[in-house]
Amino acid sequence: MKTLYLDCGMGAAGDMLTAALVELLPNPDAFIEKLNALAIPGVQIKKEKSVKGGITGTHIAVTVNGMEESEEMHDHTHEHDHHDHDHEHEHEHDHEHKHEHEKTHDHHHDHAHHHSSMHEIEHIISDLHLPQKVQNDVLAVYGLIAEAESHAHGVPITEIHFHEVGTMDAVADITAVCLLMNELAPDEVVVSPIHVGSGHVKCAHGILPVPAPATAYILKDIPIYGGSIQGELCTPTGAALLKHFADRFGDMPVMKTRAIGYGMGKKDFGTANCLRAMLGDTADKTDVVLELSCNVDDMTAEEIGFAMERLFENGAREVYTVPIGMKKSRPGTLIRVMCREQDKEKIIGSLFKYTTTIGVREYITHRHILDRKTEALQTPYGEVRRKVSSGYGVSRSKYEYDDIARIAKEQNISLDEVKKQLEAL
What we know:
By secondary structure, the protein is α+β, with helices and mostly antiparallel strands.
């Protein structure tokens, strides 16, 4: 099984995650070019060598309209209608990281300030022409941040707004991590307990404890610890990315490591200020998943299809339907969802919200999983991904449907003809 382990002994931020994951790729520079080619408005991303505590790694520098985010433009980017823009906001940080609160800014600055709502964020993401899965991941991460900010500050999500510089910086970080996770395609993501730092930070709202309220909300039910380092080590962006992608939290599993990446922060401590990513193989094993199911007899096909889409967006591993006969001889539909334990409450809520059921059944099941990886093949028709599965004495491969469908449309041939031409290369 292809496993990604993230060591968050010095916390997590979007730029550190990006830097650590990009080092796992065979050609990191090509990925940075690909990221810049998305043309995120005003954004330029650079990969820089960095040394912390004698360890060499990568620092990711994001500039927005020629300026790199600094202490003065920190993306503690919530802004409510009742905010006073004339107050000063000081923030003491031990990371050059992305924190989703509005950093009060100098309105005499030459930069034109604009505040984006969650709706505007969705438009920014849709304009980037990302793969649908990546787009869904980005918006899901932003949803976690917006929900946390809404809860922490007691305002509706619709009143959460993001400052222009902080927003585009965070869009770059979140998009980069989601693209990297899509390219690396691990079968399992394991995250260590997260070091959040200790002490307090100053902001316009006063002196706040570490972790900050939004970060603490995101990290509910996740193992965290404070330690002796004074300062904020885990940002809401980092916390949301970890929560979205982690399959589980715990110690490093027994694995044969293929690649190791170090994502560096800017500050220096007695401990190397980095996030470490390790990609490797773990032994064939069983996986515990939940099966949640319900029966309905009063939903149209369109309504069921809509419900299935929402279930996938909320973390379902698989959703399928089975035609059944129900009481009073009525034809009905069995809706079954496979999900992780940590997604159970969201899935149950979604079943009640998007279907007409009044009851959901739960089963604990065990899966036997083949080791899976995705290969990127360079062909005359462009890049084609091939999924390779092995384990338990068997091996099989399959081309990514989206890639062969694209070729079939471009060449005006059948899917089977595309496969034959690929096999002949």
